[in-house]
Structures are given as structure tokens and as C-alpha cells.
Specification:
The chain is 38% helix and 17% strand. By secondary structure, it is of the alpha/beta class. Among the domains are: 54 residues, no CATH class; 260 residues, 3-Layer(aba) Sandwich (Aspartate Aminotransferase, domain 2). The strands form 4 sheets. It has a 7-stranded mixed beta sheet, sandwiched between helices. It has a 4-stranded mixed beta sheet with strand order 1-2-3-15. α3 runs antiparallel to α11, α4 runs parallel beside α11 and α13 crosses α14. GO terms for molecular function: identical protein binding; pyridoxal phosphate binding; transaminase activity. Pfam families: Aminotran_3. Its cofactor is pyridoxal 5'-phosphate.
């Protein structure tokens, strides 16, 4: 393990990972839980605080993935825990479809105030990201009277039937799950790392804009589009920031054809990039924005916030869910938003980005296959390729994830080709823990490269 000189390492391993008790509990999971449920590392958690997870064997590891981006405020933040304890003693879920509880409106008020756009807004709360996307699409279709939904390559929007139709990466998320909801149109998305050789960035972005215009003739007429749905930073797709020019083009087209622009900020929102919503970096204002994951600091809650006239379009009773916006989840969201709207808390995102870029720029000098370091704030990734043509190289990524875990650091894979390692740490991770964890991953990358470089054209 590696720590800042003069500090005690946060990683404390008393057994090999996974430990014997984790392995025993893993066997129970295999016996009783569907094997279709994925799992990154075979760790059984006893407790967690901040960016540290303590397992049932007495080991302590550093978490750089935070439940896949749900913990921007860290595990068990004391403000969140206090809010949950207080609310649990009052009412757990009387049902917003039956009565009113003010926490729901308080969360909506905060999101309406802080979401992009200087116009009246309203919000509906749901349980998770996919449910929020479903609601956003339903409302957009109702408002426009149209059916067509435009999405993009590499996107991930959820695992319900409609959101699987909207999601890219067929083999992992969609194989044998169809047929899928109709009237979903998938278009190419700019990826500056995969720009054609010899093309300037300006020319490439202009070409991408032209392809978007072409799609309005080749795939769907503008008059049939209910909404264009975009992740401002792809999450599962490999932490790919969408260029501001392309976001502006989507905004222009939506204005021209009367479609709704929806920003899916399930992973990129809730402060992850240093702003409450990632699309704010581009200065583009969507008609609707979707929040989830870190909104609830680990509790199941999501939100659709949009122009009031759009959100109020459906008839009474057209939207809602039994558990959506329950008092416990809202209490957590209020505590989370109180932190995530503080500039000093959001500043942690830039600190994370600086550290990731610094550490892995140094690694790149030794590992030419580590071809890209990208992201915004606390949403970062490193991508591996096997040659100068940037052919995706997924083989080392699983090894990096598993070896990093065995040394006490949790990271995950990402990318359309599963050839990227992603980092989604808590924004308040102590600098010493961040440096310690990144040093472990950097050492692992060098080690895996030394063993596998013969598989590439760089050797």
C-alpha cells in the first residue's frame, strides 16, 4: 500500500481480499440471489464512512466508485444520517399519492431553484434513474403530442423496457431482452478521442453537427420528435464529455422543431463535475433535467425538473408512484442538496480531476496503451488501446480492477468497449486517501502493462 509520507495508510488489510467471511457470504449470495445481478468486487460490507469501507473480515479499503456515483457526499455523511434518524421517528411513507408531506415540495423547490434556466419550473420525484427517464419521456410525449425519442451512441438511460431501448451497448444490457419500445432513434455522438485521423477538432464538430441535421431527413422528421435525450457526460459509455458545440446544436434543433431537450444527469449531476448539473459547463439550458444517484446520498430517489408548462401538461393522475419521493428519501436528498449547493464542497471535484490527471499523466510516460485521461471534476476515466490506431483494448481493464481491489482500492470498468477504468469518488474524499488510492491503481496499471504489453503493437 502507498500513502502520503508521514501519514498512516487508510488501507488496512488483515486478510487477503476477499477475506474468508466475505467468501462465505459470497457463497450465500450465489445460492440465493440471481446470478444476473452484477458485482464488481467480492467484498461484504460491515460499515462505511466517508470514502472508506470496512468489511466483515476487518479490512478497510478506499472506495473510488461510491456505489456507481451515488455517494458524492461520501458514505454515511453525518448530516444525512441525522436527517434519516429524525425523519424515521416521525413518518416513513404515508404516501404522496394519498396525503402531502412537505419534504417532497422542499426537494422540488430546491431543484427548481438550482436547475439551469431562468423560467418557472416544476419537479416530480421518483425512485431511481430509469423511472425518472420514463417519466421525462412520458411528459415530453404528452406535451408535444409526438412519439419520437432521439438518443445517442454510448448512452445509458436505464434497464426498463423503454430505457433499454434508449440505451447503447447491446450485449451487456439488452441481449435476449427484446422486443423494445418503438420510436427510439439512436444517432452518433462526438467523441474527441476517436476523432478521424487528420481531421481538426473544429472540422470534426462541424461534421457531427451536420450528421445531426442529416438525421432529420434520413431517420426521423423534426415534426415527429418529442424529445432529444442526452447525457452531458456519458457515464457507462466511458466518461465522455459531450462537446459544448454539440449540446448547443441540440438546443438549436429542439427550438426549431418544437422538441423537448432532456439532459439525463443521473450520473453527471448532483455536483459530480463541480457544478450541480454538468450541462452548466456548456452554458446550455435544457427544457428538462433528470437527477438521481447522488441526489439521495445513497437513498433511492430521482427527479425530473422542467419548464412548468411542460411538467403540468399531463392530466391529473398521469404520473406518480407509490414510493416516489418518500419522506426518508427526501430527508436524505435535502441534506445532500444542502452540501452539494455549497461552492466549497463542490470544489472537491476540481481537486479530484487535478489528482487523476497528474497521477496518470505520469503513468502514460511508461504505459503508451493508456491513451486517454478524460472527464470533468469527480467523474474521470482512463482508456486503454492496443495500437496507434486506438483499437480498444479491454483485456487489461478487468485485471486492473481486480488487482486494485486486492490491494484495497475499489474502481470499475466503463466504456462502449469496456476498455476504460472509471473513478467516481466522494467529492469530500481527503487528499491523503485520494493520493493513496490513485497510487495503488497507478502501480497496478504499470504492473499489468509489464505483463501484457506483448499483446499490443506498442511493445
Amino acid at each position: 500500500m502507498t500513502a502520503t509520507p508521514g501519514t498512516k495508510p487508510s488501507i488496512q488489510l488483515v486478510t487477503p481480499l476477499p477475506g474468508p467471511e466475505s467468501q462465505r457470504l459470497q457463497a450465500r449470495r450465489r445460492e440465493h440471489v440471481t446470478t444476473a445481478l452484477g458485482q464488481t468486487v467480492a467484498l461484504s460490507v460491515k460499515s462505511a464512512q466517508g470514502s472508506l469501507i470496512h468489511d466483515v473480515d476487518g479490512n478497510t479499503v478506499i472506495d473510488l466508485i461510491g456505489g456507481i456515483g451515488v455517494l458524492a457526499v461520501g458514505h454515511n455523511h453525518p448530516d444525512v444520517v441525522q436527517a434519516l434518524v429524525e425523519q424515521a421517528g416521525q413518518a416513513v411513507n404515508p404516501g404522496m399519492l394519498v396525503v402531502n408531506h412537505d419534504h417532497y415540495a422542499q426537494v422540488a423547490e430546491l431543484l427548481n431553484r438550482h436547475a439551469p434556466g431562468d423560467f418557472p419550473k416544476k419537479t416530480i420525484l421518483a425512485n431511481g434513474g430509469a423511472e425518472a427517464v420514463e417519466n421525462a419521456v412520458k411528459i415530453a410525449r404528452y406535451f408535444t403530442g409526438r412519439a419520437g425519442i432521439v438518443v445517442f451512441e454510448g448512452s445509458y438511460h436505464g434497464r426498463t423496457n423503454l430505457t433499454m431501448a434508449m440505451t447503447s451497448k447491446y450485449g451487456l444490457f439488452k441481449k435476449n431482452m427484446g422486443p423494445f419500445s418503438p420510436e427510439v432513434y439512436r444517432l452518433p455522438l462526438p467523441n474527441l478521442f476517436r476523432m478521424p485521423p487528420g481531421m481538426t477538432q473544429d472540422a470534426y464538430l462541424d461534421w457531427c453537427d451536420a450528421q445531426l441535421e442529416h438525421a432529420l431527413t434520413a431517420y426521423i422528421d423534426g415534426s415527429a420528435i418529442a424529445a432529444i435525450v442526452i447525457e452531458p457526460v456519458l457515464g457507462e459509455g466511458g466518461i465522455v464529455p459531450v462537446p459544448a458545440q454539440f449540446l448547443r446544436k441540440i438546443r438549436e434543433i429542439c427550438d426549431r422543431v418544437g422538441a423537448v431537450m432532456i439532459a439525463d444527469e443521473i450520473q453527471s449531476g448532483s455536483g459530480r463535475t463541480g457544478k450541480l448539473f454538468a450541462i452548466e459547463h456548456a452554458g446550455v439550458v435544457p427544457d428538462m433535467v433528470i437527477a438521481a444517484k447522488s441526489l439521495g446520498a445513497g437513498l433511492p430517489i430521482s427527479a425530473v425538473t422542467g419548464r412548468a408548462e411542460i411538467m403540468d401538461a399531463p392530466h391529473l393522475g398521469a404520473v406518480g408512484s407509490t414510493y416516489g419521493g418518500g419522506p426518508l428519501a427526501c430527508a436524505a436528498a435535502l441534506a445532500s442538496l444542502n452540501l452539494l449547493t455549497q461552492p466549497e464542497f463542490l470544489a472537491g471535484a476540481a481537486r479530484i480531476e487535478d489528482a487523476v490527471r497528474r497521477v496518470f499523466t505520469d503513468v502514460q510516460r511508461d504505459v503508451p496503451a493508456l491513451a486517454d485521461i478524460r472527464g470533468i471534476g469527480g467523474m474521470m476515466a482512463i482508456e486503454f488501446v492496443r495500437d496507434a490506431a486506438r483499437t480498444p483494448w479491454p483485456d487489461p481493464v478487468l485485471e486492473v480492477v481486480q488487482r486494485s481491489f486486492r490491494r484495497g482500492v475499489i474502481v470499475m470498468r466503463a466504456g462502449l468497449y469496456t476498455n476504460a477504468v472509471r473513478f467516481l469518488p466522494a467529492l469530500n474524499i481527503p487528499q491523503e486517501q485520494l493520493e493513496e488510492a490513485l497510487a495503488v491503481v497507478a502501480d497496478v496499471v504499470r504492473e499489468v502493462w509489464a505483463e501484457k504489453k506483448g499483446e499490443t503493437d506498442f511493445a
